[in-house]
Amino acid sequence: MTTTKFTSTARGREVNVITMAPDGHAPGELPKCVALHGRGGDVNWMVSLGVQKFLTGVVRAGVPPFAVISVDGGQDTYWVDGEPGDDPQRMLLTELGPIQAAFGISMGAFGALRFARSRRADKTDLKAVGAISPALFRDWPTAESKHVFADQAHWEANEPLRHIGEVDRTSLGVWCGASDPFITVAKALANQARPATSSFTPGAHDGAYWSGVLPEVLTFVGRRISGTA
Prior knowledge:
about 35% helix
């Protein structure tokens, strides 16, 4: 696990990056998956959930090795352009180097789905996209209450539920706990997108659930990056 910093032109600030590789592998030699933290989180979010440990575990169990990149996206940006001069989505697209896959938790799932749309528009589909406990919004009043989006048009332009057809369903996985407040929108996402896999099992919107599903998410990502799924 390595920690670095770079000056992000897209975000207009210095940004922290943590790269996690399975034990025994050099991250520079591996395909990359970016992992997007939830609201109120930062670059350490994925570390605290045990991503590196789980990554090592799934690789030892036979999943082809890959590296996971965690990066600061702002505590309540939903990984889209908001404040003037701060565009986390552009950072993902242009400043992290080659990225083959993405997954996100809560707000990060919103960002990962938005990233997948942008990559498809560039004709460079991600090989895997994981949406865990996706914080999505079915209407403007609910989205407006988060005080993130500039106006309704800004939300509509970015809301994944309004652009389902722009994400490759064969690369998509959806996970959500049955007691999560976002379970209804997670099921709506799955019903509309018909993803490659979806899982709705007991759990809440918390670290215990997220750590519990991470091995499955990382297995899904690794197999699709390598083409062995």
